[in-house]
Each structure stands twice: as C-alpha cells, then as structure tokens.
Amino acid sequence: MDKLVIRGANPLLGTIRVSGAKNAALPAMAAALLTEEPVILENIPQVRDIETTRRLLAEMGAEVELGYGRAHHRTTICCRNLASPEASYELVKTMRASTLVLGPLVARWGRARVSLPGGCAIGARPIDLHIKGLEQLGAQITQEHGYVEARAERLRGAEIVFDKITVTGTEDLLMAATLADGETLLQNCAREPEVADLADLLNKMGARIEGAGTVTIRVQGVEKLHGAKHRIIPDRIEAGTFIIAGALTGGDLNIAGCEPQHLGALLQKLEEAGIKTAHNAESVRVMGDGPLRAADMMTEEYPGFPTDMQPQYMALATQAEGTSILTENIFDNRFMHAQELVRMGANIKVEGCRATVRGRTPLSAAAVLASDLRASASLVLAALVADGETIIDRVYHLDRGYEHLEEKLRGVGAQIRRIGEMLPKRVLAPVVRT
Ligand code: UD1
User: Fold this and answer.
1) Nearest protein CA to atom 4 of ligand 1, as residue
2) Residue 178 alpha carbon to ligand 1 centre in Å
3) Whose CA is nearest to atom 3 of ligand 1?
4) Which atom of ligand 1 is nearest to the CA of 128?
5) Residue nearest to atom 8 of ligand 1 (CA)
6) Which residues surround ligand 1 with Cβ inside 6 Å?
7) Which of 120, 189, 258, 353 is catalytic?
8) How high is the pLDDT of residue 40?
9) At a CB cut-off of 8 Å and minimum separation 6, what does 90 contact?
10) How far does the centroid of ligand 1 lie from the alpha carbon of residue 183, in Å?
11) How far is the CA of 415 from the centre of ligand 1 (A)?
12) Beta partners for 391?
C-alpha cells in the first residue's frame, strides 16, 4: 500500500493547475448509457474513481476508449450494445457513485440491477431517494440479495419533491427523466455546479432540461438522445484544497484553470479567516502572508460551504488564532480526520456534528492514517505545515479523487514523495549492470 511522505514548513509558491471535476465526470460518463451514439468527454481527471467507472461501463458491454498522449484527458464512450445492465457489489463497494447508472439504465434499457452501497466511512449514505424517485417515474423496484432491481417498459414523467437535497439523487433522476414519457418536475433539487454541468451535457445530447442549477428542474422527455462532445468543468474541491494549501503555508499561489464563481462560500469564509485572495475569470491567487483568525463554519448544500472542504478547513483552523466551531450538517460521521490531526498536535474536540478547534497549536509530524478521500487531503495540508516528516498511510483514498497530487504540489515547492510497500530484500530483483 502506498504512503505519502511529507516534510513540512515550505511556503508554496508559483502556479498550480486544477483538473476536471471528478464529481462532474462521473455522472457525465453514466449519461453515455442513455444513447447508442458515442459521447466524447474532455477534461476528465485521471483518478481512481474514473477508472472504476470505466470498468463499470466496460463490464456492462460499453466501448470505452481512452485518450493517449496529449489527449489523455479525453474519453469516448459508446453504449450501442449492452451485455448486462448490472453494477456489481465488487464495484459499488469501492465507489458509491456507481449507483448513478441506475436511472440511465432503466430509462434506456428498461432494466437495471445495481448493488446497494451499504455503509460508508463518513456516515450512513442510503439511496432511498433515488429508488423512491424512480418508483414515482413508474419503475417497478425489487430488492433482493443486496441488489436493487428496477424495471420499466417506459418511464413516465412525474412531479417529484426530494425529501432531502441529494446531489447524485438529483443527477440520477434527471438522467432517467430525459427519456421518460412526458414532463417531469423535480423539486428541492441539489444546485451544485456538477448538476448544471450534467444538464448541459444532456441538453447537448438532445434532452430538454430547464432550471438545472436551481431548486426546480423541468424535463420534457424525448424519444431518443444522441451523441455529443462535452468539456467537464474544473474541480472546485481540488481548487479549494490548493487555496488552503497556499494560505496555510504562508505562500503565494496562483490556482489556475479553476472557476472562481463556484468557490464563493469558501472564498468568503477564508476572507473572514484573514486570508487574502484575488481572482479573475479562471484563476485564484492566494497570498498567505497575514495571521490566520478563527472563523466558525458550517457545511451546507451548494451554494453553502461544501462538506467536501470541511476536513481541509479543519486543518486550516488548527493554525488560526482563537476557537473555531465547525458544524457538519450533511454527513453524520465526517470527523474521522480530527483524531489524526490531534495526533499531530491539534486541539480538537468533537461532539456530535460539531468540532471545536482551538488554535493556534504547532503541528508536529507523525504517522497518520487516511480514512477517506477528503480526510486524506486534510492530513496532507496539516503535514505541509508540520515540523518534521509526516507519513500518511492508505493514500489510495486520495488517489480516488486527486490527480497527480504529489507532482502538482512538488511543482510549487512542497517536499512530498510517495513510497510503495517495502518488499523483503530477498524477493527484490537483482540489479543488472551493463
Ligand atoms: C455527492 C458527492 C460527494 C459530496 C456529497 C455532498 C458525488 C459523486 N459525490 O455525494 O462528494 O460529499 O454529494 O455534497 O457527486 N441521502 C439520503 N438518501 C438518499 C441520498 C442521500 O438520505 O437517497 C442523504 C445522505 O445520507 C447525506 C445527504 O443526503 O446525508 C446528502 O447526500 P448526497 O447529496 O446524496 O451525497 P452524494 O450524492 O452521495
């Protein structure tokens, strides 16, 4: 298992480039199931979750072509013939977003069999709202042997009010509704930019969607969708992680290729915490030369402060003067990183959905364990300002969603390297000298 070794205390200086958004790329790839024609996606990040989705689609019989060389961020997906409309437990357990195939499969193929995702490190994450919505669209749902099976000759439009705001739930039903008979009205929808990006792609494929990015989405079902070419939006969570890295290390960092408009709540909170940023249409510059101040934060659905930035913000709060109260409103167990930060010297108390971070405490390097994707990012950030060499274990979590993180951070001055599992000496291949 790979580990990251990070030596702290270097200010990050220079320009760092943001990749395409994983959370926009995943539903876009699932959307290719809705048509028999090729869908070309650009700005796809090279991360593990994308690889998992490629495997998922290929296992169903889709042709998934990868770009090479300069086109390595492009993928072409053609779902002309599918052998089996099924997402196995083996894949769903490694990536919950696999459930995004449920809606498109039942809409175009009339049948979908998808494993139920089960427990998750950051809390209970049921898919009951996806299932309920599909039932309202006329699908027959059965659950057996840990799988949910949905069947429908043709889905029919309906009015659906989400009991709770769900990002992938909105995306799943949005995709299903594009091929339903008649009009679908989705209410209390997630407003995340990734939902709007998916709707852009679907409209390019011939769908008739209005209102994506707002709480009410209206979809006029069509007979058929066609192929399209689409560029995925930049990853706002990756951008946010780099902004905090620049601020924490007292650096001067230009985060290029991002969409500052998607970062409103974060930039506002950072300003409250004493961090100076400046932005133009597609980059943010962060100047980390002033003192950091404590600022309370609570996570909310977009456009509020993203839960996917809460662990990184916690790392920042350990270095701010004063007490910050962080409230996690989206997931019920998303503070696993707190105990690892405490091992590095942070003063954090967690009670229910609230974490009290008392700063500023110097951090010292330690061996720590990553528990999930964004928790890993929080530990990387803490390590960048810790005294000594931190070793982060289980970085496969990080690889699910951050593209070439070490290379990118090294490029702006971080001392970070990856080490693989050490093999016992006798099984190492002999060195051949010529
Ligand atoms: C997506 C993001 C994830 C982010 C999360 C919240 C992707 C691939 N993942 O996850 O990075 O952290 O949004 O911004 O885009 N819920 C239910 N029933 C359901 C669905 C959700 O109760 O059927 C609950 C969840 O348990 C959670 C809340 O709703 O408490 C929000 O979850 P949701 O928005 O669905 O998260 P994901 O779409 O899984």
Assistant:
1) 308
2) 21
3) 308
4) 23
5) 23
6) 23, 26, 96-97, 124-130, 164, 166-169, 190, 194, 307-308, 330-331
7) 120
8) 97
9) none
10) 25
11) 34
12) 5, 367
Q: Which of the listed residues 92, 101, 128, 168 should we mutate to test ligand 1's pocket, taking the one with most ligand atoms within 8 A of CB?
A: 168
Q: Which residues contact 75 (CB under 8 A, 6 or more apart)?
A: 29, 40, 41, 44, 50, 54, 64, 65, 66, 67
pLDDT at 333 over 80: yes
pLDDT in tens, 289-320: 889 999 999 999 999 999 999 999 999 999 99
CB 183 within 8 A of CB 201: no
Closest by CA position to 258, among listed 14, 8, 15 = 15
Atom of ligand 1 nearest to the CA of 190: 34
DSSP-assigned beta bridge partners for residue 15? 254
Q: Which of 34-43, 61-70, 84-93, 329-338 has the lowest mean pLDDT?
A: 61-70
Nearest ligand 1 atom to alpha carbon 26: 8
Structure confidence by residue, pLDDT tens digits, 228-274 = 999 999 999 999 999 999 999 999 999 999 999 999 999 999 999 99
* DSSP secondary structure letters along 384-433: HHSBSEEEEE-THHHHTT-TTHHHHHHTTT-EEEEE-PPPPGGGSPPPP-
Examine the pLDDT at 425 and tell me if it is beyond 70. no
Q: Give the full edge-to-edge strand order of the sheet including 228-231.
A: 63-66, 75-78, 39-42, 228-231
Distance CA 223, CA 154 (A): 10
Q: How far is the CA of 164 from the centre of ligand 1 (A)?
A: 10
Q: pLDDT class for 71, splitting at 50, 70, 90?
A: confident
The 10 Å Cβ neighbour count of residue 239 is 27
Which two structure tokens, joined as six digits, stand for 166?
A: 């769900």
Q: Mean of the per-residue pLDDT values for the chain? A: 93
Say whether 78 is catalytic.
Answer: no
Least confident of 156-165, 233-242, 413-422: 413-422
Q: How far is CA 54 from CA 49, 89, 109, 383, in A?
A: 9, 16, 19, 33
First to last CA, the chain: 32
Contact 56, 87 (CB under 8 A): yes
Interval between CA 166 and ligand 1 midpoint (Å)? 5
